[in-house]
Amino acid sequence: MKTRKLLWIILFNLLIILSEILFGIISNSFALIADAMHNTGDVIAVIITYLAIKFAAKKTSFKYTFGYLRAEMMAAFVNTLFLSIAMLYMIYESIHRFFNPEIIDPLYMIIVGLIAVVANGVSAYILHNMGVSSCTGHDHAEHHHHHHEDANIKSAYLHMLSDALISVGVVVAGIFIYFFKIYSIDSILTVLFSLYILKHSYPLLKRSFLSLMDINIVDIDEQSLHQLIMSDKRVLEYHDLHIYKPNSKYNFITFHIVLDDENLPLSECESITDEIREKLAHNGFNHILIQVDSDKKLLNHTSCKILNS
Q1: Would you call 95 helix, strand, or coil by DSSP?
Q2: Is residue 20 within 8 Å of residue 41, measured between CB atoms?
Q3: CATH architecture of the domain covering 222-299
Q4: For 86-136, what is each residue's pLDDT tens digit?
Q5: The sheet that has 235-244: what strands, in order across it?
Q6: Which of 92, 105, 77, 90 is nearest to 35 (CA)?
Q7: Domain 2-212 CATH class label
Q8: Where are the domains of the chain?
Q9: What is the DSSP-derived secondary structure letter of residue 59?
């Protein structure tokens, strides 16, 4: 049901974007085109939400052992990169037009801007009314999944709400041009909109790039993680630590631990790793792989840096 509503919101807003671009060209209004670009960026956010929900339902296979975990971050990176480039070009053209003003037809700005206000307002209302999913299970990973889904929908709602407010700005600019013939306000608003979009696009661009590069962006500091892993006195060392976040839903961590007694029964080893795994789960990790090594391996292995407790 959620995916169907999101799909309708995407299709509805794509029509508004095409209309804003078309009438922005006809009316010679860069502000209208900039608003279309901002709408594009926010529709992308809804598309990412849609993809995240759809791909999360797909099963893994022998070929796709990780499934489609990176689809969300790949789409986010490509789309925000192109959006940022487009905004930089809009700023360049707007500065040029500011010093070389051209006549703009404000009626198209006002009419299309009002339509965009209604469209974005309705989209925001639908997203807001989709509500928060209730968690039916007690499993930590399941709870995390619902929280992720709700955060995505809330983010898309805020994007659409900001779209509506910016469209109001386009309408106000059109009214100023209509009554006072202040054509430069179109260039000023275009620059302001573009800077606003760049500011809000950069965090997603950065986060998606770091994710694709398997760089650790999980919200946990090194000292805390070290203390967590070394909390059991039987753990001498840990190495081959890898932390990565393939999408906004999962936090992956893998590492080896070295125990002080290589003759510990399997049940004891599992007890140690289960305790560490539980603590990691409480810190937001939902895909955890721990391998137990003997101290003999430690002598032939370059271990990770151990922090002072």
Answers
A1: helix
A2: no
A3: 2-Layer Sandwich (3.30)
A4: 889 889 988 998 998 888 889 989 999 999 999 888 888 888 787 534 333
A5: 235-244, 252-259, 287-293
A6: 90
A7: mainly alpha
A8: 2-212, 222-299
A9: P
